[in-house]
Amino acid sequence: MENNDLKEAIEQDSNNKLNRQKVLTNALSISIGIIFSVIVLFALYVVVKPQLSNGSSFVSEMFTEEQLQRLEEAARIIEEDYLYDYDKDKMVDGAIEGMVNSLENPYTYYETEEEYQESLNSGANSKYFGIGVHLTYDQDNDAIRVLGNVPDSPAEAAGIQAGDVIKKVDDIVITIDTYMDGVNAIRGEEGTSVNLTILRGEELLEISVTRAEITDNNVTSEIIDNIGYIRVYSFGIGVYDQFKEAYDDIMSQNIEGLIVDLRNNPGGYVKDTINMLDLLLPKGDVLKLVDKSGEETVFKTYSDDEIEIPLAVVVNQNSASASEIFASAIKDAKKGVVIGTQTFGKGVVQYVERIKGHGAIDIVSAQYFTASGVVIQDNGIEPDYVVEVEEEYKNSSYIPRDKDAQLQRAIDYIKEQL
User: Fold this and answer.
1) I need a surface site. Which of 104, 170, 295, 368 has the fewest CB within 10 A?
2) Neighbours of 189 (CB within 10 A)
3) Contact indicator for 328, 262 with CB cutoff of 8 Å
4) How far apart are CA 178 and CA 206, in angstroms?
5) Are 173 and 6 in contact (CB under 8 A)?
6) Alpha helices in 16-153 (DSSP H)
């Protein structure tokens, strides 16, 4: 059933694209006000107030004296005038979250201690409870974008497609501020349901999906016309071992060429990606990481082995992050070609920084450059051969073989090299 109120809001948002930044700024100003009010509770009761009462001046590396005075004034107002009791720890969590949200970067976000522990547990193995969908932030729609589904997952069974835009998760209307809340809400206990409001083209859909235990099946493989075909759905946990097993098995069958399909692959672990490239490429630089201070880290391949048969990598607009690293490395090393459409353009690296045992910040700390110097972020990787598929299959996880123009072009390329 359509959610008319939400649909009307979406249409209004589309008609006011030029005002979107202003709206975001106004909304964020509320968060920032909360941030300052709560930060001062820290400053006032831990550092500032004792020093001020002793007649000494406090010097902060982060705030000017004028800013500290504003913080102190805000804290005084809350402490002296606020009618109700309040939980200072909860306010601190909200303040940190607001501070991070004010950066307006979807790849930088705050996790409470509970969320952090949950992410540790879910990241410890390849199983978790959810619907089996790969997600990212959609800046154009200020929503969650589906990059792809885990094979045989509840999301796939419910008909969710790559390219779907999730505007609402249960009662959470998605914005840049609620993006991570929405992502976290999609997971849950096995057997429970999550209701998604999805924008697909011009159509607004309501889809209910029942959560289940998800095992990331990252790699499948087969032989097509004596050409090896390996599909990598995600560079998630265990992907290198899964890829190597499939690669060794296929290569033992005297194939004439190899196709690696990265369509709708959202990325994952860079280390495993480099190890996979080490099976295919000669020794050399494949990736450069540059942090805020300008310090560079170069990733290399070291193996004496390299693939000696024709190689094609298939990508699309939903191939992101590690997929783009993989494709660009093959292209730059001239060991194969990239076929499909321009990739997503996600080329930043995040790390998790703990906050004194009370949650953590997932923060963007550097960006990647390809070996040839291309900035992946917001640009993506341009294929050697641009090939579109029919519109109805553009974001599909499964395309009938006789309709798959991108895969067929990869097969043709391999045969042309023989």
Assistant:
1) 295
2) 7
3) no
4) 19
5) yes
6) 20-42, 49-53, 65-81, 88-101, 113-123
Amino acid at 113: E
Burial of 400 (0-12, 13-18, 19+ CB in 10 A): exposed
C-alpha to C-alpha distances, 121 to 4, 116, 126, nearest whole angstrom = 39, 9, 10
β-partners of residue 333 are: none
Q: Which helix (H) or strand (E) holds 251?
A: helix 239-251
Query: 387 to each of 5, 390, 400, 409, how far by Cα in Å?
Result: 39, 10, 16, 8
Rounded CA separation 337/327 (Å): 8
Contacts of 250 (CB under 8 A, 6+ apart): 221, 223, 228, 230, 258
Write down the residue that tokens 């948002």 correspond to: 13
Say if residues 327 and 315 touch (Cβ distance below 8 Å).
Answer: yes
Helices 20-42 and 65-81, packing angle to 10 deg: 80
How far apart CA 201 and CA 341 sit, in angstroms, is 19
Contacts of 198 (CB under 8 A, 6+ apart): 160, 164, 165, 166, 167, 204, 205, 206, 207
pLDDT tens digits along 230-244: 999 899 888 999 999
- Does the structure show a pLDDT above 70 at 44? no
Q: Which domains does the chain have, with CATH numbers?
A: 4-104 (no CATH), 127-214 (2.30.42.10), 216-416 (3.90.226.10)
